[in-house]
Structure formats: C-alpha cells, structure tokens
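ENTRY TYPE: paired fold submission
RECORD: A
CONTENT: sequence, then structure tokens
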Amino acid sequence: MAGAQRLVPAVLTAGPADLRRYLAQIDAGVLTDGDMDGLLVMVLDALDHWATFRETGERNALYELAIRSIELVDFQVEDADPADFLAAPAMAAEYDRLMRALTD
C-alpha cells in the first residue's frame, strides 16, 4: 500500500512519458492475462486515456475519460436502473459534474 500512496501524487503531476512508463511497469508485473480486478482495469484504462490526452490534446481522450467516470459510478451504484441510469442520485450528480467540466 505504501507504494500506491507514493504513486498517486506522481500520477497527478506526471507527464505523458512518465505515465506510459508507469503503465508499462504495471503491465510487466501482471502475471495472468485476463484475470485482473475489473475496477483496476477501469483505472488503468483511464490512466491510458489521460496519458493520450496529455500527449496529443485530443478531445476524444477526454470523452473516453468521461465514459470511464460514468462507468465507475455505475459500478458503485448497485440499484441503478439500466432503463434510466440517471435516476440514481450519484449517477445524476456525476453526469452534471462531467457536463460542467467538459463545457467550461
């Protein structure tokens, strides 16, 4: 856990090359393909999109980050209705937060 605590501040300030190096280091340490916790896969995917945005400035990478954020809230909200996923207060709040962030 101490290693993870050191990594979080580094990820927040790391440049794209550093993020790619961290992702490669994690990938090299994975012992089994396809047997990773789904939440960890989401986090690593989000880091990959963030690194892409930092490298290229492509808005599509931000779009993908927004999708991952919605997926994370969906993962955490157990009573979410698939027919109306914004009905859950946490989901609606995350959607509003994303809309404000993406339109500022």
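RECORD: B
CONTENT: sequence, then structure tokens
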Amino acid sequence: MRFGSILLFLILFSLPIFATQTLVVYTTVVCTLGDSYYSTIQSAIDDSVDGDTIIVCANGTEPYYENILIEKQINLYGYESGVKLASPDGTGVVKILADNVNFSNFTIETSLNYGESGIWAEGAHLNIDNIDISELLGDDGEIDGYGVLGFASYSNFSHINIHNTDIGYLLSWDSFSTISDGSVYDCRYGVYIQGPMDEHYSRSHKMEAID
C-alpha cells in the first residue's frame, strides 16, 4: 500500500505542468514584461495556448495592419486604451472563432470592403470591452463595413463606441448577449438583429442614425 502511494506520488509529479503565460507584442518599445515577445499580433496568437494573455503595446501613432484570427480561449488586451488596428487588404480586422475570449482596449479605423466587419464575434461567453470602431469606408468613400458582426451567445459587448459604419451591430441568431454602456451613431443602421428579439439586451446604450 505504501509502495503504491509513493508510486502514484512520483507519477503525478513527473507529469508536465502547463502554466499560462503572458505574451507581449511590440514594434519599437516594450511596454511591459512578459514571458515571450513578438512583432505581430497574429504570431503571438499562433504561439499561445488556451488561457494565455497577450498584451499589445501601442505601435506609436500607427496601427497594426493585420487580419487577426482568434481560435483559442485567450485574453487579448491593448496595454492601454486605443491601441490601433487596421486591415491590410480591406477584409475583416478581427475574427473570433472560440469561446471564452476576452478582447479589449483597441481602436479600429480602416478601409473595408462591403460586408466586412471590424470585429467578427462567433463563440460563447465572449467579453469584448472598451473598443472604438469608426470610419469603415470603402474605396469609393462610402461607409461599407459593419462594426460588430455577432454570432455569439452569453456574451458581453460593453463600452464599444461605433460610428460612421454601414451597420453598428449585425447580430445573427446571437442569443442571450448584452450590449451596454457604449454608443452607435452616424451609421445607416444602429443594431440589426436576425433572430429572436427577446434574447438580446441593450443597457445604457446611445444610438443615433445618419440624417
């Protein structure tokens, strides 16, 4: 019995322990300490595992020109409010295809093709907070892009300010999600919902349409 207990103890402590890590993205100046460092957001995401935190330093006054794809349960934060993101090719800027993702402290201002979005949110228990999305203009100067395209459930969209886009929020069968404490203005449509109306909640949200 004693031998069995010792053997079990040795087996348990010989198993690898996977601790979450902090990955830092920067271009010129490191804004905080981390376990590893990257020059692009996507390369940090590709190296991350579920539970990791990625902190993105500001790129001076310039945005990070990337198509960001999140397929892991991670935290992705700007080190400070307003870290800039933009599309390099007119397609969507951020696409979330995972559950339990936290995403905050970014500004998205970019040219987008018609029907593309600043944030594509598809998953459950997403927390998207403190985001500014604006000036989603096509090549012809017309507002073409969607601010947030959501297919999420049990998710929170808070402190998101969207203006000068085609549609602020396009929520397609997005269930039991909350939009709160932000604004949508100078858009053709504020919030467009495809699916049951009674499963969406908007709290303290200012909305104004284009004249």
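NOTES ON RECORD B: The chain has one domain: 16-209. Confidence is low (pLDDT under 50) at residues 7-12.
STATUS: closed
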